[in-house]
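Pipeline run #58 for the internal structure catalog. This entry was flagged by the ingest filter as a single-chain record with no existing model, so it goes straight to prediction. Upstream metadata was stripped on purpose; only the residue string is passed forward. Reviewer on rotation: M.T. Logging verbosity set to normal.
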Amino acid sequence: MKTSYSVLLVEDDHRILNGMKNALSSCVAEIHEVYISTNGNAALEILQSHSPDFIITDLCMPVMGGLEFVKRMREHGFEQPVIVLTAMEDFSSAQMLIKHRIENYILKPFSMDEIIEETSRIIGKLSKAESLHMAQVLLDNRPEIVNDAEDSSTNALVRDAKDYIKSHLAESLALQDIASVLHISKAYLCTLFKREVGTTVNDYITKQRLKEAKRLLSETDLRIGEICEKVGYQSDKYFIQVFRVNEGTTPLSFRQSLRQQINKIT
């Protein structure tokens, strides 16, 4: 998953422009490239040649101001988040950009802390969107990873048992505990579940735990030990063993394989 981002700063005041560049370069670890421009016309050229991840632009500039710049970048199909810098007296004009999907406004005069804070918020949003995109790519190309087909039992007790198992994966999930919650005997639970689902309760629990583990491996950067705990295994070694037996690979190799597939697709 992407860990570094680029930003385009568009501002005709060189003091402010250089101040923002220095602040973001030195204070935001995720920023690896800062492009600068003093007007919207030059900024459009940078967009086309470098496609930065997001943009911070002033409103009033010579040659081409922020209003026209944002309008044109959207017309050209650029969807990057945009933060607009504007003085209070120009704010009513800046609001005209709402229809062009502006991310936020920062009023002048502003502090560099405000720029850093807003940049960090945008990076967090971009990172989250990328994680969701990764998950969707996996669903589109490997739906079995997180969406295995299940039987649709019409038995209310079986449905309740399934719901309880899925919502308590991090716990021990002893058969007696599940049966007690449903107010039936352990023997009846096993018989009913086998008849309706076609598998044992314990096998179903294992399947659900591995399903959730695969989701966490594909959508998060959690360590294997953390995932192990979240899906109800007390021992990393045992979790890896169960995963290998059922999936034919280790959790780490599974994650690495998925990342390689994503890189090929994207």
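catalog note: The beta strands are 5-10, 31-37, 54-58, 82-87, 104-108.
catalog note: The chain has two domains: 5-136, 144-265.
status: ready for reviewer M.T.
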